[in-house]
Amino acid sequence: MLEPFFKNYLNQSTTKYDAQVRKINQFEKKLQSLSDDQLRQRVQDIKRHLQAGKSENEVIDETFAIVREATWRVLKIRHFDVQLIGGLVLNEGKIAEMKTGEGKTIVALLPTFLNALYGKGVHVVTVNEYLARRDAEEVGQVHRFLGLTVGLIQENMSVEERQENYNCDVVYVTNNELGFDYLRDNLAITKDEVVQRPLFYCVIDEVDSILIDEARTPLIISGSSQVTTQKYIQTATLANVLQKNVHYTVDEKNQIVKLLDEGTVFCEQALETTHLYDPPEPWASYILNSLKAKELFKRNTHYIVNDENEVIIVDEFTGRTMLGRRWSGGLHQAVEAKENLPIQDENQTIASITYQNLFLLYDKLSGMTGTAKTEELEFENIYKLKVVPIPTHREVRRKDFPDLIYKNQYLKWQAVANECVEMNRLGRPVLIGTTTIEKSELLAALLQEYGVNYRLLNARPENVESESEIVAQAGCQGAITISTNMAGRGTDIALGGNLKLVLNAKLKTVIQNLHLADINKELDEGEKDPLVCKFTPFFRSLNEQEIKKPEFLSNFIDYLTKGLKLENKILTEFHDLYIKVFDELNTEWQEKKVVVSQLGGLHVIGTERHESRRIDNQLRGRSGRQGDPGSSRFFLSLDDKLLRLFGGEQIMNMMKNIGLQDDTPIQSPILNQSLDSAQKKVEAYHFEGRKQLFEYDQALTMQRNGIYSERKRVLEKTSLRDWTIEYGERSLSDIFLTLQQRNKSELGDFYAFKMQELLGLPYQINENSKVETLNEIWKQQFQISYTLKEIQLEAIEPGIMRELERSFLLQQIDFCWKEHLQRIAALRDSIRWRAYAQRDPLTDYKKESYNIFVKMLARIRHQVIYLLLRSKIAIEF
Question: Residue 5 has what pLDDT?
Fold first, then answer.
């Protein structure tokens, strides 16, 4: 039951929207009598209204009503009133906190459609490609029905495909692809390579996962720096010899490794060096990375090793593998050396941006998630986003039982297995959340010993492929599902199972063989699954040439998800059969839902508290969706990381003092409060880290925006002559400012040297010339030199000067910016030591990074002019 104060809070936060919801409902009644074409005509009228600069408030109620009516006509889903409130909150540029199963995907249709009518493009950002593709195909039908275009960005798309999709009215894209496309656009050599439009409006699904969890690590595009890999191999061997607390210490809480004096001496002797921090031959960073790889980064927890002998990072929050992502600073190479794998070259940063600063580029930003209130302060401080809790459509009936804490891991896992066996005996579906791949497989092996059937969902590729089917069946009677994490899975666990997803997954698995003989053989040899056997005649009737066509599978899936009727007799027959079988089985499926509900619904088991309360809440939230019954309980042990780092000894003493047996768990509300307090401390620590990353990147952001704006103008301008002339004059002014700081006796020689260095021509200065007039004389001389060079080159190759200007500008901007990023990274690594001198590192960093930036801009100007005035065309005879 919702507490009265919580009800009051929800009422206060949504009362302002009640009148607007009533107006939308009134519009809905008027729209129901309109034809599809008349509905689309209303959309065009609203579009003209908005693009003419008229107020959005005049049309928002009608627009939301149109989307609700279109969603009913296309998907047979009608927005609840609370979903309308969620849409209004998103349209205001806020975060809508909606519980799992409340239909966030449908809610996003409302504000995205309204903002897409401005014609500037709207982005819906999701955490993985599966969700982006699913949403674009399924709910994107509503946008298409109303006359909008829908784009989808996927990993392996070409530049042309990306341009076409980004130019659509509504674009579904993952946060990674969005960020890397932004960086690649700002490395483009020609305007034709740019894929994105200016960033206008964005709705982020699982906003806490993207803006909080993934905000710790910046997006980086890098190139090989050709650093030798031998040092990683040497220090990996050395790390295995070094002893913890003898040669080094490990701060697991702060993820820091420190060498002790004895360890430093030992390493210097082993590596035959006099100083580990010697700049020409540094060893310290290699040793520390090898020790981190040994102590803090565990296989099947933080990473896996795939069949190609590559180290693949596992996202600790979503439990998914992060293909293409690498740890920076040599850490990834250290892990590769630890695992005796081929060591890839260390990378040098070419372009980077944090998620914080990427999403702040949008004119309007909003997001939705089931768990945002715990991070409300961070959302407001960094992103200026307010969190608005949206009431559930039906009252939450889930029971969250107090945690059980056991003395050790063995007792805990035994208790978890016993709980699974008991629930399985009752017939209740169970979802078990584990924190690592290793622990998920440990529990799987334990349940196998107990003779209990289960499904396993973790980051291993063979399990990820069947993800949608596993989640779809997790609510079936007696089902036991083990998962590394449930954040961002994108599929609700329906009690009794999800018939459509199960049916589609089974048929897709069969058809993907693309070999008719194999399908027939599989069915003939005893494939007894009724969902597949009902389609045996259909599969046997398929023409093998038809089935091997590249477009067959995509068309096949379109039939499953959209019910399209293309001009293909075989597929049309299949669609009719599919609908018939679905209707036959649906009644039986509904009966199963009633049975599971009567048994108590889905029971969620947590096997460890996460560092963030949000992740625990996401796991709990998988049960009790849309008013369904359910329950949850966490099983913990004193060996768990969170308890070990925050109060494990005190709890152990408590167990001894009250005289509990070793196999007796502690169950106490006070203990739960202590755990919540520990999680808050960890959250505060990580918040401070993200805040520091954001503050340091803010200084770089202003510089990045300046460089990228300059680059964009270079790409868009047809002629850069005036720009280049300005570069030359500013370069002369730089020399003039330096000249003013020198003694008058040195002016002649210094001027002659600098002018020859920049312009490539010998100059002489009249010693009687006034310093104040020199700068104007130099500018005239430069313009003459530049015009002569232009005439010389254009006489040989017309248009060559304009091409050289663009080429040298882009080349020098990119080269100097890459060098600048290296200098800034070195500054950021060293600046923290200023705190020991009672100075604010951040203030010093901002000042010094600005000075480095100004010098970089001058270097770009000088080098562009230097290269242009020395350009020659080789003529072959």
Answer: 36
Q: Any idea which of 46-55, 111-120, 386-395, 868-877 has the lowest mean pLDDT?
A: 868-877
Averaged pLDDT, 667-673: 73
HSE on the CB side for 693, CA within 13 Å?
A: 20
List of residues 6+ apart from 110 with CB closer than 8 A: 64, 67, 68, 79, 83, 84, 86, 87, 88, 90, 91
Residues at the binding site are 83, 101-105, 492
- 668, 686, 718 — which closes off a domain? 668
> Are the CB atoms for 97 and 389 separated by under 8 Å?
yes
Nearest residue to 56 (alpha-carbon basis) of 9, 91, 98, 22: 91
The CATH number linked to 403 is 3.40.50.300
Mean model confidence pLDDT for the chain: 81
Q: What is the total count of domains within the chain?
A: 4
- Does one domain contain both 338 and 197? no
Residues 395/99, Cβ–Cβ less than 8 Å: no
What are the start-end ranges of the E strands in 695-849? none
Residues 785 and 715 in one domain: yes
Q: Are residues 135 and 200 in the same domain?
A: yes
Q: Does 146 fall in a domain?
A: yes
CATH code for the domain in which residue 763 is found = 1.10.3060.10
Residues of the domain holding 36: 4-218+357-389
Structural element, H or E, at residue 174:
strand 170-174
Q: Does 373 share its domain with 321? A: no
pLDDT digits (tens, 9 = 90+) for 294-338: 998 888 888 888 878 888 888 765 566 777 677 777 888 899 999
Contact between 507 and 469 under an 8 Å Cβ cutoff? The reply is: no
In this prediction, residues 608-623 reach a mean pLDDT of 85
Residue numbers in the known binding site for ATP are 83, 101-105, 492
The pLDDT-based confidence of 282 (bands split at 50, 70, 90) is: confident
Is residue 638 a part of any domain in this protein? yes
Q: Does the pLDDT at position 421 exceed 50?
A: yes
Q: How many CA atoms lie within 13 A of 675 on its CB side?
A: 29
- 236 pLDDT exceeds 60? yes
Is the whole-model pTM more than 0.85? no
Q: Is residue 676 part of a domain?
A: no
Contacts of 408 (CB under 8 A, 6+ apart): 637, 638, 639
Residues 166 and 294 in one domain: no
Tell me phi and psi for residue 860, to 5 degrees.
-60, -50
